[in-house]
Amino acid sequence: xxxxxxxxxxxxxxxxxxxxxxxxxxxxxxxxxxxxxxxxxxxxxxxxxxxxxxxxxxxxxxxxxxxxxxxxxxxxxxxxxxxxxxxxxxxxxxxxxxxxxxxxxxxxxxxxxxxxxxxxxxxxxxxxxxxxxxxxxxxxxxxxxxxxxxxxxxxxxxxxxxxxxxxxxxxxxxxxxxxxxxxxxxxxxxxxxxxxxxxxxxxxxxxxxxxxxxxxxxxxxxxxxxxxxxxxxxxxxxxxxxxxxxxxxxxxxxxxxxxxxxxxxxxxxxxxxxxxxxxxxxxxxxxxxxxxxxxxxxxxxxxxxxxxxxxxxxxxxxxxxxxxxxxxxxxxxxxxxxxxxxx
Amino acid sequence: xxxxxxxxxxxxxxxxxxxxxxxxxxxxxxxxxxxxxxxxxxxxxxxxxxxxxxxxxxxxxxxxxxxxxxxxxxxxxxxxxxxxxxxxxxxxxxxxxxxxxxxxxxxxxxxxxxxxxxxxxxxxxxxxxxxxxxxxxxxxxxxxxxxxxxxxxxxxxxxxxxxxxxxxxxxxxxxxxxxxxxxxxxxxxxxxxxxxxxxxxxxxxxxxxxxxxxxxxxxxxxxxxxxxxxxxxxxxxxxxxxxxxxxxxxxxxxxxxxxxxxxxxxxxxxxxxxxxxxxxxxxxxxxxxxxxxxxxxxxxxxxxxxxxxxxxxxxxxxxxxxxxxxxxxxxxxxxxxxxxxxxxxxxxxxxxxxxxxxxxxxxxxxxxxxxxxxxxxxxxxxxxxxxxxxxxxxxxxxxxx
Lengths: 343, 401
What we know:
The complex is a heterodimer of chains A (about 350) and B (about 400). Chain A has helices at about 1-15, 35-40, 230-240, 280-285, 305-310; strands at about 45-50, 60-65, 70-75, 85-90, 95-100, 110-115, 135-140, 155-165, 170, 175, 180-185, 195-200, 205-210, 215, 220-225, 255, 260, 275, 295, 300, 320-325, 330-335, 340. By secondary structure, chain A is of the alpha+beta class. Chain A folds into 3 domains: about 35-115, Beta Barrel (Thrombin, subunit H); about 135-230, Thrombin, subunit H (Beta Barrel), CATH 2.40.10; about 255-340, Pdz3 Domain, CATH 2.30.42.10. The longest helix of chain A is centred in the N-terminal third of the chain and has 13 residues, at about 1-15. Chain A is elongated and about 75 Å long. Chain A starts with a helix and ends with a strand. The relative contact order of chain A is 0.11. Chain B has helices at about 1-25, 30-45, 85-95, 270-275, 310-315, 335-340, 370-380; strands at about 50-55, 110-115, 120-125, 135-140, 145-155, 160, 185-190, 200-210, 215, 230, 235-240, 260-265, 280, 285, 290, 300-305, 320-325, 330, 350-355, 360-365, 370. Chain B has 7 helices and 21 strands. Chain B is of the alpha+beta class. Chain B is about 20% helix and about 25% strand. In chain B, the strands form 4 sheets. A 6-stranded antiparallel beta barrel of chain B has the order 1-2-3-6-5-4. A 6-stranded antiparallel barrel of chain B has the order 7-8-9-12-11-10. Chain B has 2 domains: about 30-70 and about 100-280, Thrombin, subunit H (Beta Barrel), CATH 2.40.10; about 290-365, PDZ domain (Pdz3 Domain, Roll), CATH 2.30.42.10. Chains A and B meet through helix 1, helix 2, strand 8, strand 15 and strand 19 of A and helix 1, helix 2, strand 1, strand 5 and strand 8 of B.
């Protein structure tokens, strides 16, 4: 018995194996890229606490430090209110945040904290303007369900980029008006994780987690993130003070295509069958006829008369679009140039 | 004895050494998996098509919708009992449940896999649940085709359609026996209309699920990848993501984020494929017997024979004991369930059984399709409730909520 014990000890010593070493994170070298990506960026993601009151609104979220001067990027959430928003840094210190104007199109907002009294300087993340391809491994950092308090470390979740796409969304049974691309991942995203950072394994920060939204395309909740590529102008405007290139406010004019659909109305919009095509109209130029079923306009699927109207509203007079339609058992395609609708 | 123990100890120490080695991992391991994943996706991408459906009348919830099997006629509405006026008023006040029973199917796009180069495409039955008037298949190169419906296999949740196209890229299929538990499984799809297929990552959790018809995977499966392939790291198809559940109903996304997804075996369907091409709708096989649950075998003691069933036609009676099926000694009732349920309706089945007085009989019967009623009995009936806000034209002002 004694001999066995002694031998076991020798073997262990020889193999430099000591109990505990196998389980200690710090001493294990080298770190995997996943561990490194998390460790390197944990300092730069912060906990945000906001106004509470309504039971349905969680008064917590996450944010990312984007400048040494104290700019923090997060979502434009209801709970972020003047004089009520506090930022908890990785060291556990609490700071009141000033609110900068949000980007309403993307639904993101910058906060600013006072950095004069900070003992250690902030570690800002540099946004990466690339959007990773589908199948790229990602890690998402945030404070899901407010599990981390004070100086506790935030949670990291792992997944893969599912797709980067425009999909119609729903949030709490209401449609969300968001027209940009979203990065969909299968890294779990939960309440509180919102506003957290989405990183590739080589440490590129490319997205901010959104709220839990439901895709109307699939009727399931999806983990989505806003690409920083789209937030570039907003960040430059409010961090570096760069004046944005003034967009010309163009009034959108309604388009004329000459197609009248067989829209019976009702609760469920019917498929977009053509009832009539005006003579001499853009649609007549590609020989569209009654009973053709319109299935696609450019790259947008058209499954109903309602979707046809909504999609047509995206286009402008003078624009050339491709119409895909089905006649009999054949699917045809043709390009039409939209005209301005006469009153 | 001492020597033996020392050897054992050394072994133990060495094995823990190898664990340490395995844990001081290669820092770039995941990056390599990522590279392999991307390559596998690119290899399979030309064979994944987008499936869009138009029209169709059926509005279905998973709970009350068509289950696995032929659809059952709607029950006649019960005559309203005459009651006091007060009670009627109370009834009116009752509001439907706010919780959705089951899953309301979105009519978004789904995916499909090229099965043959001359235009047979395998899609998920989920896509044709609405009985659409038009099915549109879009190839990755942008060409769109009108698809003609072929057969369906309700037990696998798959459907076959045909398009008039030639020289389509056929993917490589992995025979079911070669799939191992623990290997990577990536569920791909084309719902979001991206240039590249969408991907969810996971592993194979189990093989031979649902009576040998499906793999169980832990990647998210949802309408985003129904009909799409589940691939291994070499870009070969191990199955097709479909909504399935042991209870047999169209599970929708019931188990969406539970870490349970099913990938139908589509590699070695053999003659089933021919039957699907003929346009047949296939169901799980059905013998039509109930067994005595207290009987532990060997063999299965029959407690009831369903009317108009293959068992009835074969002359099997209450009290008989089934001994052999297709030459296999039946051990107990669950063994019999496995043997019968893995067959399809219309398949022949050799039955050997003994009468109550010990007389042995043997014959071949042809299994029937499993009736929908048989399946639905097993699932808890849920009240079908369509929330008003799930219609296309929903109130803009938020009223009616």
